[in-house]
Write a structure and sequence with these properties.
This protein has 267 residues and is an alpha+beta fold. Helices cover 18% and strands 37% of the residues. The chain has four helices and eleven strands; from the N terminus they run αβαββαβαβββββββ. The protein has helices at residues 5-18, 57-68, 94-105, 143-153; strands at 46-50, 79-82, 88-92, 116-129, 156-169, 173-177, 181-190, 193-203, 218-227, 232-240, 252-264. The strands form three sheets. A four-stranded antiparallel β-sheet has the order 5-4-11-10. The termini are far apart.
Length: 267
């Protein structure tokens, strides 16, 4: 005899009720967040060499040295040095090197200022009191300066103790030794005038050794002076105690006389 259909229908829902519900899907873990690492930057100084127009290397070196300066009592941001062939060596952090490279790339060699040379003549003159002026015209080039000394200080007998001619590129330093004199100069040009930083050492006699290192046995002068081209200037005077046996006894004065010129071209 066939089974009743209603029992089968009742059994089917009962089986469904007894089965465990399906497990909920486990969500996948979110992908890990990846941050692209930026290239590391460094402020460590780099050394780079720059080729610049030779006629501009000196002025560029000075401009960079000024720009790299951090002021008094602070270390500079970098250093710059000019090589004998005119190239510039710069030691500075990368950011500053980029600025230096951009500056040099924008140079126009056709607009370079002409090279200028400063020429200074030095006369060290000894003067001593006299009844009438003597020796004023011994060196015609400095006669006007000696006449001005006589006019302001009275009659003197003059003799040239030492003389020197020294040339240097504008804004560069030069020094030289003579028999009784050592000189160092750095000359700049400002509106056609010379601004000269001078250091002079003068031995009182020929047997006092090298004037550069004779210390207390020398007369020393250190000064900054302004000169018009061709102008004679008495930049200083000092007492002189000569040990020269041939010198006449009595008070003597050492006069420092300078004349400067500018010309276009190298030394």
């Amino acid at each position: 005899m066939p089974r009743p259909i209603h029992r089968l229908l009742l059994a089917f829902p009962l089986l469904l009720a007894c089965q465990a519900p399906p497990a909920a899907p486990i969500p996948a873990a979110p992908p890990a967040l990846t941050v692209a690492a930026e290239p590391a930057t460094s402020d460590e100084p780099l050394l780079r060499t720059y080729a610049v127009p030779p006629e501009q290397s000196r002025s560029i070196e000075q401009a960079l040295a000024s720009a790299l300066s951090s002021g008094k009592d602070l270390p500079p941001l970098g250093t710059v040095e000019r090589l004998p062939d005119g190239r510039l060596v710069v030691v500075a952090p990368p950011g500053i090197q980029d600025g230096v490279a951009a500056l040099i790339a924008g140079l126009d060699p056709s607009k370079a200022p002409p090279v200028r040379t400063a020429e200074l003549d030095y006369w060290i003159v000894v003067g001593e009191p006299a009844q009438a002026a003597e020796g004023v015209d011994t060196v015609p080039d400095i006669a006007p300066a000696l006449q001005a000394i006589v006019a302001s200080q009275g009659a003197m007998r003059f003799r040239v103790h030492e003389s020197m001619h020294l040339s240097s590129l504008v804004d560069d330093r030069a020094e030289a030794d003579g028999a009784r004199m050592w000189a160092r100069q750095t000359v700049s040009e400002v509106s056609g005038r010379l601004v000269a930083d001078l250091e002079l050492s003068v031995a009182q006699s020929k047997d006092r050794g090298n004037p550069k290192v004779c210390a207390d046995d020398c007369n020393h002068l250190k000064s900054r002076v302004h000169l018009d081209p061709g102008q004679l200037l008495v930049v200083g005077q000092a007492g002189l105690e000569s040990s020269d046996a041939k010198a006449q006894p009595g008070p003597k004065t050492l006069f420092y006389i300078v004349r400067g010129q500018l010309r276009t071209g190298g030394v």
